[in-house]
Structures are given as C-alpha cells and as structure tokens.
Amino acid sequence: MIAIENLVQFFIETREHTENICKPLEIEDYVVQPIADVSPPKWHLGHTTWFFEEFILKHHKEGYTLFSEDFAFVFNSYYESVGKRVVRTDRGNLSRPTVDQVYAYRTYVTQALQELLEEEITPIVEKLLTIGIHHEKQHQELLVTDIKYILGNNPLTPIYEGELRFRESKKETLQSFITINEGVYEIGHTGEDFCYDNELGRHKVYLHDYQISNTLVTNGEWIAFIEAGGYQETLLWHSEGWDWVNTHEITAPMYWYLIDDEWHQYTLNNGLQKINPDETLAHISYYEAFAFAQWKGMRLPTEFEWEVASSQLDWGDRWEWTESSYLPYPGYTKEEGALGEYNGKFMVNQKVLRGGSVATPPKHTRHTYRNFFQTGLRWQFTGLRLAK
Ligand SMILES: [Fe+2]
C-alpha cells in the first residue's frame, strides 16, 4: 500500500508524464486516427481526464461543476453503464474540442482533484484515485504506441524528437533454456500493493516439466523464418491466422520494409533504420508468434509457465505472447458498478501477454500483470519467448 502523500505525488507525476509524452507532437499529430485501434493523442489526453472526473470528482467532490456537459460523450471509451459515447472509429473525426481546450480540461480536473485530496481522502477516493493513476499509465503506453503508428505510417516517416527515449533496440544475449521441474505452483497477485482485479484469485496450478528460453526471439531469427518461406507455409498457421496473413497480405512484422534487399524498420527516436539481426524482435501478432514457434518445433509458454519462470528471466522489453486465453482466475469477482467493465468483459477471444515493454511507463508492470489483446493485433511492442 502506498502512503497517501506519496499517492498524491504519484498522481501529479502521472499527469505530467502524460503531457511530456505529447510534447514533441505537432498540432496535427494530436487529431488523426489512422486505424480503429489507434486513438488520437488528443483523445487519450481527454479520456484519462474524463476518467477522474466521472469516477471521482462527479460523485465525491461537493459542488463540483463539470468542465463541459458534452465531454463525457466524446471521452467515454467503453463504459456502457455510464452513458452513450462517440463510436470508436470516429475519434479521429473530431476537430473539436480543440487541443487547447483539452489541455485546459486537464488542468481544470487535475486542480479540482488536488483540491479534493487536500481536504480529505476517504478510502473510496483513495481506491478510485489509485485505479485512475494506473489507468492513465496504461494510456501512456497506448499514447506511445499510437504515436508510433501515426508517425511510422506517415510517408515522411517523421522522427519522435522528444527527451523521452524508447530503447527499442536491444541486443539479445546468448540463448539457453531454463528447466523448470514439474510441480504445483501458486499463480496470481499477493500482498498489499496495487494490482488489477484480473490478477486476483491466487491459486495453484500443476505444471509439467518444461523449458523456457532465457532470451526473446531476435530480428535475425525472424529474417530466417521469412527466408524459409514461413509466411507461405500454410501448415505452420492456425486456420484463422492463415486467413489473416492472406487477407492483410502479411509478409513481415509491422514497421518492417524491404529496401534494396535489406530489411529496415521504423523506430520512434531514430526513424527508418537498417535492422540489426542480433536485436529483439517487435510488432508481431499472436498468429505470427504461434507460426514461428511451430517452425522452430517448439511452442509459446502458457502464462503460468511464464509467471513461474519470471524470476529467472530478464523481462520487460516486449509484451510476450503466451499460449493462454484471457480467462478469469478462480473466484474472480468484478468490481461493482461501471468499474466492473474495466477488465472482466474482455475475457473472451483474447490471448494473454506477459512482461512489459519499452513503452510501459515506470512503476507499472509486475510479474503477475496480465496484458491481453486480440490475436491479430501487433501495434504494441509485442514479441515472443520460446518454450518446449
Ligand atoms: Fe481507458
């Protein structure tokens, strides 16, 4: 549990960090939504603010006046029980509210919340504030990956020129496999520190003997997969994955370009760069991760295998696809009310990713953290670790 004064500081730092991520942007960068999954930076700035306004200020600050009656419609993401909202694919069609208005909204809400916190912090406000901070941190990561998509899919391939550096390139060490003995292991969050509801329900699982790689798959290994015809070999793929490859004409990870017979990739801080084969791979879908593991004669670890081995792994550079479906742990209970929509309603047709990434903000992920995405998505910094 974090002390109240530290929590207030954590809140202020988090609000500032979000704005720091956006500092290098030009005004036009704030507004576009090139694909449905990528939200405009302006929308993230507003949505994270709306979250504090809707869940804390509106109900817990006496005499609070909404910054704008219209903003809930624009900045509610997926909370059905809170009211109607703009459809996701239209987030990039909104020239208003302006970026300036959204920054003014942020200041207004941050100040109102600071005032509330100076008066009295009730246990419920403390709990909601903690969730609001972690929620904003999740959006910080989305901001980084969405900015990468916006800039990286622009034909001018502009560079993200900020003080913030994202260590996208990291040399992998020599690969070896760690052996874990069969047995009963405990999975899930324990202790007083914050976690999401989906990490709770600590429970036992039985694992058979397995081996897990100490390294993540590298760009060089992926080039070998491409050159061996991996994207053309139907037998390596799930039926759905094969449809995905063909429908979207996938021939390489996202942000990879073959220029004069040499593979290049777009990176935030350095733009288009020649690919270094010794560095860690990023931006692949679950379908690709699975096909690659098949090609290697291995498999992806389950999320339980990953968690048990995690203390022996160097993790945190990529979200690692696992073979586990995103399901509730035993005894899982949703929060009451709208916040029950936070995690539980997504526990269908998604795979769990473990670890963290170069875009994950400080003090956010942990070894029990369960990220989750649909199987075809790859604009996050996703990679894979082999198991057998
Ligand atoms: Fe959100």
Please describe the structure with a list of short key phrases separated by commas or semicolons.
388 residues; alpha+beta; four-stranded mixed β-sheet; three-stranded antiparallel β-sheet; 11 strands; binds fe (ii) ion
Basic shape = globular
Number of helices, where a helix is a run of at least 4 consecutive DSSP H or I residues: 9
Order of helices and strands: HHHHHEEEEHHEEEHHEEEE
Unreliable residue runs: none
Describe this structure in words.
The protein is α+β, with helices and mostly antiparallel strands and 388 residues long. The protein is built from nine helices and eleven strands. It has helices at 4-22, 41-60, 71-75, 99-119, 123-152, 219-227, 239-247, 286-295, 303-309, and strands spanning 177-180, 183-187, 203-207, 210-213, 256-259, 262-267, 271-274, 319-325, 351-355, 371-373, 382-383. Strands 10-9-8-11 form a four-stranded mixed sheet. Strands 5-6-7 form a three-stranded antiparallel sheet, with no helix packed on it. Helix 1 (4-22) runs parallel beside helix 5 (123-152), helix 2 runs parallel beside helix 4 and helix 2 packs antiparallel against helix 5 (123-152). The chain is globular. The chain starts with a helix and ends in a 5-residue tail after the last strand. The mean pLDDT is 96. Bound molecules: fe (ii) ion. The site of fe (ii) ion has 4 residues, from helix 5.
